[in-house]
Design goal:
nine-stranded mixed sheet; two-stranded antiparallel ribbon; Acetyltransferase; MshD_Acetyltransferase; Acyl_CoA_acyltransferase
Length: 225
Amino acid sequence: MNYNFNREQFMEIELRCEQTKDYRETETVTREAFWNHDAPGCFEHYLVHIMRNSPAFLPELSFVAVFDGKIIGNVMCMESIIEGDDGKVYKILTLGPISVLPEHQQKGIGRKLLEKTKATAHKMGYRAILLYGDPDYYTKQGFVPAEKYNIRTVDNMYAIALQACELYADALKGIQGRFVEDAVYAISEAEAEEFDRHFSFKEKCSGTPSQQKFKKIVKMRRKAD
């Protein structure tokens, strides 16, 4: 069913923690949201599937957006670290995937999921969220380039896709180093392809505008000084 909700209905969207019974539906929503977006097909629904088995996974920060009994969006988080240049290790969060069904995108649902995540993570005592994503979107959601804090990729590069969001004032002040996300993000493409066979067939397309933009963003890296 294609929902076209108005402002009042938008306010009725329920945000709640994902439950075991939601797993398949959440994976399907993620697949629909990412299919052919960054690359032909997608692997994000497989990532969602395996994240839940990682010790770094935080079920308290796995939220779904529900409207009229159907999941239309979701977001998940993992614990990650910054290996500080001072030799210390700082615990932070990695956010993603975050997904909204294509027919409900650009309606503020992603923002609503992000705000819920940030508020809950702050209450849990986390200092910041880092992620790899489209800066055109995330800078509108309170994120800034991680380079602002001299935070680099694990291979010591500045990347425009690496975005950071402090969860309280000066949370990252004096912290600089390399962002190290959980190993679960390094997925096996072969295993992801096998997992996708359990879903209904969808045609893969290449050369889309979003894929071209993704390739451009990924290449926007430079060595740290």
